[in-house]
Batch of 2 targets.
Target 1
Amino acid sequence: DIVMTQSPDSLAVSLGERATINCKSSQSVFSSSNNKNSLTWYQQKPGQPPKLLVYWASTRESGVPDRFSASGAGTDFTLTITSLQAEDVAVYYCQQYYSPPYTFGQGTKLEIK
Amino acid sequence: QVQLVQSGSEVKKPGASVKVSCKASGYTFTGYYIHWVRQAPGQGLEWMGWINPNSGVTNYAQKFQGSVTMTRDASVTSTYMEVNSLKSDDTAVYYCARDFGSGLRRFYFFDYWGQGTLVTVSS
């Protein structure tokens, strides 16, 4: 199984500042068949299901604010939230869909400092 | 609008079974795989498997083979996930989620989620 490891486990950032969350996979999730990295990011607020933010490692889902951006390739990926808003408080998960079982990172809890 | 509406919370004793339903609306039911993902209290997300609502073909994570059964009833646009021989560590919120891809394209990530069903296993 591909192990997804996020860092840090929790993060406190001031309103308006930048938040950066990292995700590392135990093996590459790059697919040569389509030249894409099979990596998504989700946001989960308390009591809610996860919400898709980013797929193919860097493609923002429709309706997601452009303060959310993501990058990375192979085994190392980053989600960045520029100018943190109060509504961004949540747990963020990465997920690989390169090979089954489709595994998630352990989550990063983002709070306001 | 796309909606996945799940059945309500359940409390079960160890060794029992539970069946959770997920009713889809707002899109062509047979066009998208449905996945099941669970989340133990305060824990992360765990993918359990998928079902093709068109054919009924399923694929389970190895961990859940033999203990989980996914089915569908296209006449009511619903999928079901049954867990047998429940143990205390099966206590979790169970989510259904729609695959991002449609038709012949499958991506194995999820764009719409149900609200979740809490299953509590306790003697």
Target 2
Amino acid sequence: SQKIEQNSEALNIQEGKTATLTCNYTNYSPAYLQWYRQDPGRGPVFLLLIRENEKEKRKERLKVTFDTTLKQSLFHITASQPADSATYLCALVRGSGSGNTGKLIFGQGTTLQVKP
Amino acid sequence: ETGVTQSPTHLIKTRGQQVTLRCSSQSGHNTVSWYQQALGQGPQFIFQYYREEENGRGNFPPRFSGLQFPNYSSELNVNALELDDSALYLCASSSGTGSYEQYFGPGTRLTVT
């Protein structure tokens, strides 16, 4: 069956360090992979999207990599700040022609805690 | 530009009852998706509506149903509530089924007792 896995344990890092979150998937060939941020009691907020033919995407202090051979995406936050503390969700999207276009399949999320 | 809004914010219902949750999509968006998020889990896709038609459904029973209106707002209805239906219900809008970036509302927290 299709499976998306993120680090279930919370990630605790010191302010200023780089946080690296992992998303692994099996039995799936996504056309896109997305990362969202979710704060307690709030809806997810879109951060970055990377396509299957892209290896890396950057946005300010954020960087996402996508390795379709390893079936893995890494999400990096450089120079982390306490305000980056949140749960980060990865989500896969199937390509067109395979039905349910736009349906997001989420991992369970990884909670990041950045300590000052 | 108005973001995605949902109502109510919180709701408490009794097992066996029925509930209707509402969502107003972001201005200019014609696609609405609904997700269920249990505590500590990622959101799970319930269904999507595009131009008032259902455009895909996740692994949820028929007692979960929906509607989309001409102004692209949407409703999620759940009949015969069960305890396991307790969750955060999220609505997300996008500018089309081919646009994968989705904008989420704050969610409705449903508690079934």
